Amino acid sequence: MSLVKFYKNTKGTTAVEFGITAPVFMMVMFGILECGALMWTQLGLQHGAQMAARCASVNASICGNANDTQTYAAQQAYGLPVSSSVFTASSSSCGNQVSANYTYQFISSYFGAPSLTLTAQSCFPS
After folding, report:
1. What is the spatial distance between Cα 115 and Cα 108, in angstroms, rounded to a whole number?
2. What is the DSSP letter of 9?
3. Are 115 and 105 in contact (CB under 8 A)?
4. What is the Cα–Cα distance from 50 to 54, expressed in whole angstroms?
5. DSSP readout, 65-125?
6. What is the pLDDT of residue 1?
7. How far is it, in rounded angstroms, from Cα 103 to Cα 116?
8. Is the CB of residue 78 less than 8 Å from the CB of residue 95?
9. What is the tens place of the pLDDT at every residue in 13-54?
């Protein structure tokens, strides 16, 4: 095969282009999924904290003590698999306050990605 025929040969160019662009495309898609899961987790923690702070102020039959409030917060966290120990309930100057601290493990932690600590806080007047 001559050198001119070698340069004009276009067989396999699609495979080479796919090999160059596919890893970048997959990383972008995986990053979008990671960001979505992270935002969903933060939203769930914030919602659980807000609803539990409101429950502690408004409905003492369900959220009468700190343990009940923490359990209620975990139930209201949009289906996140978190335990009630993630949430802390207390009384402060602003009313009933519920805080959450959760260590989020990225799906890509298998490749050495660090974890991230998410926090949420809500206070509802008594």
Report:
1. 10
2. -
3. yes
4. 6
5. SHHHHHHHHHHTSTT----GGGEEEEEETTEEEEEEEEEEPPGGGGGTPPPEEEEEEEEE-
6. 57
7. 6
8. no
9. 888 899 999 999 999 999 999 999 999 999 999 999 999 999
H or E segment to which residue 1 belongs:
none
The residues, any chain, with a CB within 8 Å of residue 74's CB and separated by 6 or more, are: 48, 82, 83, 84, 86, 87
| Tally of residues, the chain | 126
Place of tokens 């989020």: 104
Q: What is the pLDDT of residue 61?
A: 92
Residue 71 token pair? 């359990």
How many Å is the maximal CA-CA distance in the chain?
A: 87
pLDDT for 74 beyond 70: yes
- Asked if residue 76 lies in contact with residue 63, where contact means CB atoms within 8 angstroms, the answer is no
Global model pTM greater than 0.85: no
Instruction: Quote the DSSP letter at residue 11.
Output: T
